[in-house]
């Protein structure tokens, strides 16, 4: 079954003060709320001190929430219903490659009909709907972003999958589920938002049945990343700022943490190596790698020439008083969002698609929620 097509984005976004989805996207409010977490680091071109990083780690959930209130309509415009990267398939663009990739991933995890499966950091539910409709499993998706919950339910109902896919508002650092209550747990591009991935792996281990599969496709700094190299550090900082992440995990720490929590790693692969063209061509705005008209349009919008032309136009509109000044900051933040990951991908110090499939060994430790 094909992934349901996203309805046109109406620019709806959750109003954090009122706790519901507003029909007006307030650029000033959304931009100010997010950039407040970074303060004068913006002037220091994104370099962070250890104290600043530690402070943001304490507010990790709020940082990601403010980020998604700010970017979700833009993400939906560029990425559709599925907010993750994937290897590019022959002759296809990223969006067109996504459905087959998510289905392949479900097979790798061993998800089957009738299983109760948890999707951690589910976004607006694109992967959950694909996996539920392709395998016949039941998916519970968790995100702490209200906008994602409301939009997710809307899209799930439109797809006729409300009996199979559920959207639950919760922080993944404290999941509102009983111990041993899921047959499998997966996550796409989400666990990197934890202040320390080890803590979210521990929480996932609690809710997963013994012997169950836990798999993720996630953002990591690879073993080529060198903390002593200032260019590498700058890219890691820019990835964090541009994507609402407080502590981009390193691959070695990911592996150590999984084993420490009691997972046995069964599959360990950078899916970027399966891509037939560089996966970073879209965020890098490299139009000659685009395939098909829709893909070309999206990549063109992210290309340097269009980005800088748009920023110049915005400068004029701000000067004329027609748009708020924060629209400029919004543009620069989105620039950091896409260019930082493309720069990390080109150097192979970063990938948004390291896949681990693990098995929970032994019994559940910890309390029952
Ligand atoms: C890049 S999006 C990925 C969404 C989805 N997995 C997909 O591929 O379409 C990251 C998701 O993680 C969620 N997230 C980040 N931190 C979270 C937290 N502490 N608790 C729950 N969800 C969180 C965000 O709200 C968002 O829905």
TrEMBL record:
Its EC number is 2.1.1.-. Coiled coil: none annotated. Keywords: Lipid biosynthesis, Lipid metabolism, Methyltransferase, S-adenosyl-L-methionine, Steroid biosynthesis, Steroid metabolism, Sterol biosynthesis, Sterol metabolism, Transferase. GO terms for molecular function: sterol 24-C-methyltransferase activity. The keyword Cell inner membrane does not apply. Pathway: Steroid metabolism. One of its GO terms (biological process) is sterol biosynthetic process. Belongs to the class I-like SAM-binding methyltransferase superfamily. Erg6/SMT family. This is Sterol 24-C-methyltransferase. It comes from Salinomyces thailandicus.
